[in-house]
Amino acid sequence: MSSTRPDVRFVDGLCSACVAYDRRRAADWDARKRQFLALVRGGRRHPIFDVLVASSGGKDSHAIALTAREWGLRPLLFTVTPDFPTDLGRQNLENLKRLGFPCAEFTPNVAVRRKLNRISLVEIGDIEWPEHAGIFSLPVRFARDIG
């Protein structure tokens, strides 16, 4: 991984993605699943969903939503509309809806986000940083406020 990529960290010459990948081998996945399900089932109950999934509509979002359903959970998928959505991205989100998943979508103020995109590109080198910040923070706030 390039050292110029935003937010990349190196530990003993290994990038943060490699360090995280190596840690997967040491994890007790069955225990983590039990802990996760206990946490979700022990929390506040909402009439529509058990868990909120931040979703771009891509393969990871599909896998997480389908796994949650397999585990007996009712996920609500939360999307932050990208500044320049692609036809494939929109098709992916529509596919999740066809699969029966309820979806919530937040569209930020386009003029403000475009200003933030420009600042992010110049200051951080990542034009999509506002979208990343939105998908990392807005679902948590949404869950807190409606939960």
Characterise the protein shown here.
With 147 residues, this protein is an alpha/beta fold. It contains six helices and five strands. A three-stranded parallel sheet has the order 3-4-5, sandwiched between helices. Strands 1-2 form a two-stranded antiparallel sheet. Strand 1 and strand 2 form a beta hairpin. The longest helix is centred in the last third of the chain and has 18 residues. The protein is globular. The termini are far apart.
C-alpha Rg (nearest Å) = 17 Å
Mean pLDDT: 88
Poorly predicted segments: none
Question: Which term fits the overall shape?
Answer: globular
> Percent of residues in helical segments?
40-55%
Spatial order of the strands in the main sheet? 3-4-5
Total strands: the figure is: 5
Give the number of helices. 6
Strand % is: 5-15%
Supply the helix-strand structural class.
Answer: alpha/beta
* Terminal Cα span: 38 Å
Element pattern in H and E: EEHHEHEHEHH
Largest sheet: 3 strands, parallel
